[in-house]
UniProtKB/TrEMBL annotation, chain B:
Residues 18-27 have a biased composition (Gly residues). Keywords: ATP-binding, Nucleotide-binding, Transport. Residues 54-306 form the ABC transporter domain. Pfam families: ABC_tran, oligo_HPY. This is Dipeptide ABC transporter ATP-binding protein.
Length: 274, 391
């Protein structure tokens, strides 16, 4: 999205190609125009992501006024339409309400409406349901999936909840200490992980058939990002670690079509070694 | 981690014995006296853990809503907890699940005496502790300790770990003589898997999981019988969560602790609990063993809750049915009449608005051959429905 605060954060390398253009080479103004129309973001905590002193109608309408040059009145009508789309009951009468007057689930719907407003090609949802209760989470994820199908949008879902991704995602990328350590189609990843970290995560979920036994726990703690261990960053916590893991950083190996794993011992992991 | 590292003085332990089944807790689920069992909090505890250490009866906590500054008058009440009854047996784990705002945490605070109930009884080994005060209350509190949710705010940032874990001994000096405290605190650190040399560090020098271990060590300091854990792992990473859950289970076996484990994460609750109670808007909707609740739920709210939990298995994506509830949880200041769940329930009929369904084994299941569906469920139209795909 290009909204990392700089300072202190700078993008020091790499490229982000969006519809063939490298976003990092764009100027500020060009970049701004991509946001909202090309890609949009849904934040975790809707209460702090929404402006508390603006009515939700004004916040939604702002998108149309800024990007489409609509009048305030037309923008407000669009806002009502959007709130209807995300199934907020009595949208027309609630358009003037402020964020605090909505429940957590409704606020998250407004966030979704805001991201959808300009019909972007890509939505990035950062832990969109983490702050919600399970029954409300189910409602919101359902809505998100439905709208994604309807608008043919790409969705990048960022979450720590292995259950939510299993429900929604087609492809999964697992990150550890600032790097992607495994990518795979969702079914393959859950059936046979190719990285020990993924395996550890999956094994530490309480399961029915493990009731009464100790839960598998990945030993140790996630590393401090100012002092990432040399070699494979996961080696201090990895049950398969050998000397090579301490000295050489594993590249992303191609494990199978559409699957990669950054582990020297991906074959062994895939075969189920611990 | 030998059991005798922290020997338990006999003085604070009840004599283990056959006192057990008196309260009806150990009776089977289908003895034909559903009401008595429902009141006793459901089906029996684990074998060998007969007697209830804690009996909760009709617990109510209302927080008054007032208006006016000079002339305050009560305009209503938030009915956070509104008639909750259950038993906690020795050595067992009772899981309480429910969504935010359902009153779980208020129950926790009532149990440890951080809040006074509006009505109802909390009987600790037969004695109603809600009536106690002064020295007697203090003595009881020693045996019921709490582990808090947020390890960042529940530890004083200006106290060292040694002082935090040792502070309970200042309040209850009879447990550890002054000269002995340092050693005890170090023992506790060791028991919870922290380096005993960390005595002089401050909370900010620890990670979230380690801080939660400190909170657990503090809870253990007075060698309580009961630990009330309010969302003890919710603030932790998945990988660290498993470590803390394992620690809690190991400590339970070592010290024969009874847990009230409050959480909104249903899979963690299932893993650790012997019995589970489902709360909705200040009342219990359903209670039973973990198998009864998870595999044979009969209350529509439990069914919806279970079906909403994302399953970490993409294969189940197509096969499982989701019950999508409409709307949000109503405000506890103005709960619906009759059954509290009726406003979101797909089965609701007029009866549900008129009569509060009691928490008891539904009559249709109160037969000897009803099987695991025969457990207390507060629904007029309870019926079994499997929502979690079998593994």
């Amino acid at each position: 999205m290009g909204i990392v605060d700089s300072p202190p954060g700078y993008v020091t390398g790499g490229e982000i190609r969006f519809r063939g253009r490298d976003l990092l080479t764009l100027g500020r103004e060009e970049r701004r125009r991509v946001r909202g129309t090309g890609m949009a973001m849904i934040f975790q905590d809707a209460l702090s992501a929404l402006n508390p002193v603006m009515s939700v109608g004004a916040q939604l309408g702002e998108m149309f006024q800024v990007h489409r040059g609509m009048s305030r009145k037309a923008a407000r009508a669009e806002a009502v339409e959007l709130m209807d789309r995300v199934k907020i009951p009595a949208a027309a009468s609630r358009v003037g309400d402020y964020p605090h007057q909505f429940s957590g689930g409704m606020r998250q719907r407004i966030m979704i409406a805001m991201a959808l407003a300009l019909e972007p090609d890509l939505i990035i949802a950062d832990e969109p349901t983490t702050a919600l209760d399970v029954t409300v989470q189910a409602q919101v994820m359902d809505l998100l999936a439905e709208l994604q199908r309807e608008y043919h949008m790409g969705l990048i879902l960022i979450t720590h909840d292995l259950g939510v991704v299993a429900d929604v995602a087609d492809t999964i990328a697992v990150m550890y200490a600032g790097r992607i350590v495994e990518t795979a189609p969702v079914h393959h990843l859950y059936r046979a992980p190719a990285h020990p970290y993924t395996r550890g995560l999956l094994d530490s979920i309480p399961r029915l058939d493990h009731k009464g036994q100790e839960l598998y726990a990945i030993k140790g703690l996630p590393p401090n990002l100012t002092a990432i261990p040399p070699g494979c960053p996961f080696h201090p916590r990895c049950p398969l670690a050998q000397d090579i893991c301490r000295s050489e950083r594993p590249p992303l190996h191609d494990v199978a079509p559409g699957r990669t794993s950054a582990c020297h011992f991906w074959k062994e992991t895939l075969d189920g070694a611990r | 981690m030998e059991p005798d590292e922290l020997p338990t003085p006999d003085a604070i332990r009840p004599p283990g014995g056959p006192a057990g089944s008196a309260a009806g807790g150990a009776a089977g689920p289908a003895t034909g006296n559903p009401v008595a069992e429902a009141v006793a909090g459901g089906t029996g505890g684990r074998p060998g853990h007969g007697e209830p250490v804690l009996e909760i009866r009709g617990l109510v906590k209302h927080f008054p809503l007032t208006r006016g500054i000079l002339f305050r008058k009560q305009v209503g009440a938030v009915k956070a907890v509104d008639g909750v009854s259950f038993d906690l047996h020795r050595g067992e784990t009772l899981g309480i699940v429910g969504e935010s705002g359902c009153g779980k945490s208020t129950v926790a605070k009532l149990l440890v005496g951080l809040e006074r109930p509006t009505a109802g009884q909390i009987r600790y080994r037969g004695e109603d502790i809600t009536k106690l005060s002064g020295r007697a209350l203090k003595a009881v509190r020693r045996n019921i300790q709490m582990v808090f949710q947020d390890p960042y705010t529940s530890l004083n940032p200006r106290m060292t770990v040694g002082d935090i874990i040792g502070e309970p001994y200042d309040i209850h000096p009879e447990v550890a003589p002054k000269g002995d405290r340092r050693r005890r605190v170090q023992e506790l650190l060791d028991v919870v898997g922290l380096n005993p040399e960390y005595l002089n560090r401050y909370p900010h020098q620890f990670s979230g999981g380690q801080r939660q271990r400190i909170g657990i060590a503090r809870g253990l300091a007075l060698r309580p019988e009961i630990i009330v854990a309010d969302e003890p792992v919710s603030a932790l990473d998945v990988s660290v969560q498993a470590q803390v859950v394992n620690l809690l289970e190991r400590l339970q076996n070592t010290f024969d602790l009874s847990y009230v484990f409050i959480a909104h994460d249903l899979s963690v609750v299932r893993h650790i609990s012997d019995r589970v109670a489902v709360m909705y808007l200040g009342r219990l909707a359903e209670s039973g063993t973990d198998e009864q609740i998870y595999d044979h739920p009969t209350h529509p709210y439990t069914q919806a809750l279970l079906s909403a939990v994302p399953v970490p298995d993409p294969e189940a994506r197509e096969s499982r049915t989701r019950i999508l509830l409409t709307g949000d949880v109503p405000s506890p200041a103005d709960p619906p009449s009759g059954c509290r769940f009726r406003t979101r329930c797909w089965k609701a009929q007029e009866l549900c608005a008129e009569q509060v369904p009691p928490l008891e084994v539904p009559p249709r299941f109160a037969t000897p051959d009803a099987g695991p569906a025969a457990h207390p469920s507060a629904c007029h139209f309870a019926e079994e429905r499997q929502v979690v795909p079998g593994e």
